Structure of SMP-30/gluconolactonase/LRE family protein:
Amino acid sequence: MLRFGALLAFSLLPVVNSAAAAEWRILAQFDDAPEGLVADKDGGLYVSLFHSGLVMRVAKDGKATKIADLRSVIGDAKGSTVGLEWDRKDTLYVAFSEYSKGFPWPAKANLSVEACGDSTVTKSGLYKVTISTGKVEPVVTRADGYPFCFPDDPVMAPDGKIYLSDLSLQAIWKIDPEAKSAEIWSKDPLFSPGDKSLSGYPVGVNGITLSADAKTLYGVTGGIPMLVKVPVKDDGSAGPAEMLAFGYDNMDGLELDTDGNFYLTETTRSEIWKVSADGKKRQQLGNPLEAPLGAPASIAIANGEICVTNLNFFKHLPPEKANSIACSKLENSLW
């Protein structure tokens, strides 16, 4: 019961606000809101478009080209094309969450639990995109009998398995793409806000990533906003989750740099944060008063910059800056 850690102590830790020094630029804009983001080997980015189901590649100069269209498989299903992961070869894994007609989450936040139980929803799950051909294939979906609710962010383990966060189920799946099978890997109580959501959204874990040695999975939560870590045991199972940092609002994206520092996106306040590897220091890298940020979702490090997708869920940005990827030079830590 002490896994939340010393909550009061964290609020007294050093905070370095460098938002005024950070310069943000718009790298690319789209006809739809971008959500998922992952860097490629050439300093470019792969990005998913939230409503249209398109998967794009953005070069270093901001030029965007279409890679694939999930609608070739999901048809006219209404839903969110969310996070994506790249296998460092020719495959992207993309999460899709179909909306429930009877319980329209995320349009109505209080219906997230009810939406999980809608048996007419069949398209939610994980999809495979072959980059060279644009071919889209389902890996595992609700049509296969798995109770995905809002599959959100995938991350690949060294053995080729995929961890997939489920925002509304408040859980993390582990998926075998070859066997096309899935299991609940962690449904830790720390992911669940219960009836005491601090952000106003009854949701669980959102963005996830793995440590360099793949022995720890990190995630950010939305209901009770935290940065958490989940040990990966020697047998591959999940250990008890622990809190590393708190003191934010509804959190979305997460990335690690080579020094083990964390980069977090916060959607309600449209802020970008850097947190030290030990979780004890934090530095604000951007806010909507000084940067073109609107409900930033996923985050990636590419070409010496940190880049975020502006989902603009709360309409912070004007049309000329919305539906965009914003980037800022990756600076050395001030700690």
Notes: Confidence is low (pLDDT under 50) at residues 1-13.
